[in-house]
Amino acid sequence: MAQSEFSLDHEISWFVLPSYWAKIIVGLISCMCFANSYDGDFVFDDSEAIINNKDLRTETPLGDLWHHDFWGGKLSSNTSHKSYRPLTVLTFRINYLFAGGFHPVGFHVINIILHCAISVLMVDVFSILLGGLQYSSKGRRLNLAPKASLLATSLFAVHPVHTECVAGVVGRADLLCALFFLLSFLGYCKEGNHFSILWVLASVLLGAIAMLCKEQGITVLGLNAVFDALVINKLNILELIQKVLHKGKSLENVGLFKKGLLFRITLLLSGGATMLCMRWRIMGTGPPAFTEVDNPASFADSLFVRAINYNYYYSLNAWLLLCPWWLCFDWSMGCIPLIKSVSDWRIIALAALWFCLIGLICQALCSQDSHKRRILTLGLGFLIIPFLPASNLFFRVGFVVAERVIYLPSIGYCMLLTYGFSLLSKQAKKKKMLAAAVLGILFINVLRCVIRSNQWRSEEQLFRSALSVCPLNAKVHYNVGKNLADKGNQTAAIKYYREAVRLNPKYVHAMNNLGNILKERNELQEAEGLLSLAVQIQPDFAAAWMNLGIVQNSLRRFEEAEQSYWTAIKHRKKYPDCYYNLGRLYADLNRHIDALNAWRNATVLKPEHSLAWNNMIILLDNTGNLAQAEAVGREALELIPNDHSLMFSLANVLGKSQKYKESEALFLKAIKANPNAASYHGNLAVLYHRWGNLDLAKKHYEVSLKLDPAAPGTKENYSLLKRKLEQLQKKGDV
């Protein structure tokens, strides 16, 4: 066996480096590929998984992480995606604590470090996969394929398809899963030197940790079993099948009891079954519920259509590994139209995939060269087994194609590519030219990684980069529109939202956002039509019901608006913004008690809801309930001590209550926080005017008029003050 391993490296025209130098170089190259993403923003799914995830905040008990999904929702909820990754969320929480808030640099740096660490580990992993598991007389593992392992690791470290995992903070789930996946595999390899149940159990434990980072981690147990059979026990799969089918052959004769193989496989199976049972119990309400737009093929009525499209998705994943040029943050919502007929030319892609796979499988089973059988089988194992959870074979997944899920399968691809390169080198006369070509591929991949990770630094670049890759994807247009709207460019945002609705006429979120913009532009009729259609398509869409209520309120259809608000609250019990808008409706109708109750509900659900507090203070002030207004204002400022609008409202109340000194202090504090608010200076001037501090009143009237020459009431008050000052001056002259 040692001779054949030597021949693999012998045929490859590549660099020979000591193991530690190989690891240093790989670490540096992998860091170089993605280093420019270190100061990127939180983008795409990062908002939900990190910024809006309450599990990262210190006020959330640590124990809640074990009962919540990846996005911070309860696993028992019917709306949960059931992605159970508590250890990944824990690392986010640690990042948050050390950074002192949501500062993305620390999050990105950890991702880059994780990819570098994984790439360094891959030197050892590939040396085992390509060179076999052999030991010196002193018990040290021998690296029998240093050239091949360095080449395969380099291909892995600089593969552009990894950009989503490294540059997107949410990709940490895949990185942590891969890290513990590889540690589990390497731990199992330790067992290959001297049989020890401890190493098997350690491998199972590391596999469980990998699964708690991302569900894909459990597949390492299957790979460990394949490795045990092929490398530790040197089984010939084809020969094994033939012997089992041959009458009179016992399991012992075919080698299943050899070196304790059956016992170790039983341990792996038991560990895997235990993990799956615990995982199912934690999920609570069964598998997640996805929508048709997430994975249209899985909703097809025809088994043929489902099978054809699943296989086409596999071919697309294979193409991304082979040619990672067209990369996209999202492949759903019409990006890949369904294949509904065998006349569709895309059938060629899945035919090509299966032609290659069947050819490789036949070679892996039937080759007389044990070394070739082992490399091809392990390569296919690493390519296929970690991909199984994303294959739709066992359960429906919530995506069509996702670059992050091929982080681990790319190990198998790099292994097969390296073996193919060794075969080409064997036949090639100009080996240096072939090596130069591989170096060129590596260089191009590094450049692609740098370009792609730069696109992941901001949502604008990320979303726009997808327009050319998936122009039929409604979600791409929606996200471009949302990004433009957030930056205040409503006109451009409308264009992209309309295109998103055109591409997917049932895209309720695009309708809701477009309706919101049209509402702000006072195009109320079209806004109402879009929002009405959104709630008709999705009757439990609480945000659309609330926005519809706002539009109906603007159209002075108050009864319909009230009904829409209550429908929104029915579908989302804890909806402070909806209570706030309901309070505004009641205030317009002079239903003051109902308005105060609605705003109070908003502040109970969201104590930092400044607008609700402010409206309560202003309404109580306007209705002459100064004592109650003062009490509410003080309560609000205790909860939100730095809110200048609350200081301003309470200062007005205190001024009317003739508590001039305290009112003055609050006005000055509000002005310090927001010095360009004309009303703040104007009302402080009124306070000084009442108080008899006429010079200060004059000063702040003038500042207010300078900031806003048309400030209501300020001109009149200033004129009154000037007349009074003139009268006082005349009296003084007399």
Explain how this protein is built.
Belongs to the TMTC family. InterPro entries: O-mannosyl-transferase_TMTC (IPR052346), TMTC_DUF1736 (IPR013618), TPR-like_helical_dom_sf (IPR011990), TPR_rpt (IPR019734). It is found in: Endoplasmic reticulum; Membrane. GO terms for molecular function: dolichyl-phosphate-mannose-protein mannosyltransferase activity. The chain has 734 residues and is mainly alpha-helical. The chain is built from 33 helices and no strands. It has helices at residues 2-11, 19-34, 46-51, 86-99, 104-131, 146-157, 163-167, 172-191, 197-213, 220-232, 237-245, 261-283, 303-322, 347-366, 370-384, 409-427, 431-455, 459-467, 474-486, 490-503, 508-520, 524-537, 542-554, 558-571, 576-588, 592-605, 610-622, 626-639, 644-656, 660-673, 678-691, 694-707, 714-733.
Number of strands: 0
Low-confidence stretches: 1-6
The number of helical runs is 33
Main sheet, how many strands, which sense, barrel? none
Oligomer: single chain
Q: What does the average pLDDT come to?
A: 89
Percent of residues in helices: 55-70%
- As a percent range, the share of strand residues is under 5%
Q: Span from first to last CA? A: 120 Å
The rough form would be described as: elongated
Structural class: mainly alpha
Rg, please? 33 Å
